[in-house]
Amino acid sequence: MKTFYITTAIDYTNAAPHIGHAYEKILADVLARYHRLKGEPTYFLTGVDQHGQKVQQAAQKAGIDPEPFVIETTKKFVDLWQKLELSYDEWAETTDPAHKKVVQEILQRLYDKGEIYKATYRGFYSVRQEQFLTEKERDENGNFGPEWGEVVELEEENWYFKLGIYRDWLLKFLDANPQCVIPGFRHTELRNAAEKLSGDLSISRPKSRLAWGIELPFDTNCVTYVWFDALVNYISFAGYGADEEKFRRLWPALHVIGKDIIIPAHGIYWLIMLKALGFEDADMPTFLVHGYVMVDGEKMSKSIGNIRDPHTFADKFGVEALRYFLMRDCAVGQDMDFTDARLVQRYNSDLANSLGNLLNRSLNMSKRYRESRLTKPAEGGVLAEAIASSVADYTSTLDRHLVNQALEAAWNLATRANAYVEETAPWKLAKDPEAAAHLDAVLYNLADSLRVLAILISPVLPRAAEGIFAQLGLTGELRLSDAVWGLLPDGHVLGQPEVLFPRIETEA
Ligand code: MSP
Question: Which domain holds residue 446?
Fold first, then answer.
């Protein structure tokens, strides 16, 4: 069986992670957990981008050398990812000597192939984006917009990678593989950008300007451009050039990235780098491009002062509330708006009321009427149908990485089960000795639906899923193949009901 190999963008270690970074990492974590739940071999790689001008400048500002600086900032990422329960299998740090070795080998190979050459460039350079600018980047007033930050004019000898010779291949590849960029409108954008591709890519920076990077193997006065270093993490940590058996097992990957780095970095540079290294079209990665987490309708930025720290929300509302909100409220591929009020509203309505209430009332009724012992009916009726249809929607959406829709499918089951309680009114059945078998069936179906719900929510809410299993008196591994009606054995005894999601009370 093919390994589900998933990566995220590796985050710059020039500052602490914010909820935008957290969104992406949780999205990838949920997909990795889902594929494990399906029983597929899964490999989840994430990490940090420790080189480059941004990092060097941030270290300078902090008054320390880049090395201790990245050690310190990297720790902030690792601590947060542990707190958010990211289940990555390997951690990529670009200062890792094994990674550096692969980057240098790749540079040397492309140099030996004659695809890297030296030229003098005179022009404008964006310090923030770490790239040279051309006329294309000027806005309608002839200026370089604020997205480029500080723009300086320089003349520099640099090494160039022959990107342009691959333009026709890239266009053909994109046309033949419309599914390689998700969602489709990002594929169209990339196709348009590839059409305009002209010129080559400067892949070196003189050490006089940037010392914090990987040295070019054929010119010790230069380090490599940060993207040429960072993108390689996807293959270097997966064994490329070192452990070919591992690499063959894992590759190609699904790259989860934000909308700002598909063009040109991933969609153009990375695909062409892989092609130049001899990767076949069938071995090109897929890009899942997500939108931005906005705050009160605006992009997070230091100057606006609206950067949201994930710790604040995890500490105040719980890690699972944060995971759930980010996954439920963001349509994959679109931007989302992050507000405290919305998080609390989602938590209270979906977790505390809908699911939490279903769990609590179901277990309490079983306890009250049957001392928590279940009697299995011959068939599941409407809830068995609801399980089957929710599970089908859940898998078909998650197979397409649509986490928010999959959660909707799971909650359809919770809503249906809550309605079933109202329809069957177990408190009335309990008063009627002739309805004993009906009451048994209702209590069983509710408990069995909760068992399935625990399985379905587990990629997003692993702790809550464990909690539900424990309250149902179940142990053992959660598996998607068990998400069918009727696996609770006749005579099964449920555990003690406890409030899983206490309501968040707000002052308002
Ligand atoms: N280091 C590069 C990526 C190299 S990948 C080989 C980089 N780092 S970053 O820290 O700026 O961004 C890391 C990821 O976080 C990117 O995918 C980016 O799109 C994502 N996000 C940054 N801000 C974001 C939001 N506000 N919302 C959602 N994701 C955003 O780019």
Answer: 345-482
